[in-house]
């Protein structure tokens, strides 16, 4: 689990990022979770946007993505979710 200080640090790192995944009408599926897992391994930190037409609410989407990809939800702002997972091969972010 991340501490408050680590979450603050990650929020500041994620601030300038643009969402690279979108969750729409189909909601979260296995394929999306696999892609997000791979992207987390490569990048460690990124944003996912939840589209207006998504049938599931954003908190549930965040929970499903985090559980499926074994990641941490750093923050949910509006319809944007920030996810973090420490990379095994490609570590770039040093947590405080």
TrEMBL record:
PROSITE patterns documented for this protein: CRM
Keywords from the UniProt entry: RNA-binding
Superkingdom of origin organism: Bacteria
A single GO molecular function term of this UniProt record: RNA binding
Domain CRM, by residue range, is 1-96
Q: Name one Pfam family in it.
A: CRS1_YhbY
Q: What is the name of the protein in this document?
A: RNA-binding protein
**Lineage of the native species?**
Bacteria, Bacillati, Bacillota, Bacilli, Bacillales
């Amino acid at each position: 689990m991340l501490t408050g200080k680590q979450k603050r640090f990650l929020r500041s790192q994620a601030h300038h990022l643009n969402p690279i995944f979108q969750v729409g009408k189909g909601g979260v599926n296995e394929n999306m979770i696999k892609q997000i897992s791979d992207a987390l391994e490569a990048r460690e930190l990124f944003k996912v946007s939840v589209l207006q037409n998504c049938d599931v609410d954003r908190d549930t989407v965040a929970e499903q993505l985090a559980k499926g990809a074994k990641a941490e939800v750093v923050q949910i702002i509006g319809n944007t979710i920030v996810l973090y997972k420490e990379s095994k091969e490609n570590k770039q972010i040093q947590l405080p």
